[in-house]
Amino acid sequence: MSELLQQLGTMFAWLSLLQFGGTNAVVPEMHRQAVDVFHWMDAQTFANLFALAQLAPGPNVMVVSLIGWHVAGFPGLLVATVAMTGPPCVLAFGMSRLMQRAGQSRWLAIFKDGLVPLAIGMILASGWIMASTSDFSPMSLGITAAATTFVAFTEYNLLWALGAAIALGLGAHMAGFG
Amino acid sequence: MNVSRTELFLGFAKIGLLGFGGVAPWARHVIVGEKRWLSEREYASILGVGQVLPGPNTVNSAIIIGDHFQGTVGALSAVFGLLCTPIAVLIGIALIYDRIAGLPGVGAAIGAGAAAAAGLVIGTAIKMARRLKPNLTAVAVGLAAFASVGLLHVPMALAIAVLGPISIALVWRERRGK
What we know:
The structure holds 2 protein chains of 2 kinds. Chain A is mainly alpha-helical. Chain A has helices at about 1-15, 25-35, 45-55, 65-100, 105-130, 140-155, 160-175. The termini of chain A are far apart.
């Protein structure tokens, strides 16, 4: 058990610092380690855990918590989650303090303003990638377009868009064409 | 603006709990739209910094925002809120998943929800861009980031490594004379 926990901790602490652009950047390596190197699970189980983490609310990094849980129960969940989020959190904290010390520095403002368009472009790209995994049925495309418009041009609660979409999906299914 | 530790914890817990298919739309909705902790610009620049550091960018942003309002304890409150509650929900879903996955209509509801979630992400990017009123250079950089990752499937880390310095250099050049 403790050997398992140690493997989980070491593997995720190492992977955690390679998560440039987010957790999804290291999913292929995570797959290789969990399935081929440590034989914690087969490829199908990995795929199922990944799908489940995508489906559930919360940051994508939680796929790691599920893997830890699958491998070593609650202690595994704890070790995997802390290993995967701890090192980046320490770095972010260091960065936060550096920025506070730099205060109103002109260079910091240029650095931050330069990153803003990238941040927005990346959000747009991830939404686009999510949309392109859909089945491209008229209904899916319509829902995506309607939700996009709703969010882009109003400040209403996002739950309305999600709730309406789910109700529509269920309704269409019951009416026999979903 | 003063935000207490409890408010940080609860606000980020809300972001985590409602973040179906990704937390980016909810993070902006809660932090900028609903609670007005930060302006659109302040939030976008923190997100930009969170993105160039390794790690999930909402987790990185949570650390920076928590530290900004309440120091070390604030950073911890924000991250715990963002991760702990959704992990509990995730485990709950994992436990009952096999039983609900087979129910009629669940697939249709999930498909429709996923289509809406993609729209929430795309709409958030459009809203942020609309409200920040970027100049032409920033629009070009944002679109380049979107096209490289969203359309050409360049790894996000590579896109950030190439476009980040270019974007910062462009902002620097614009402001040199001022």
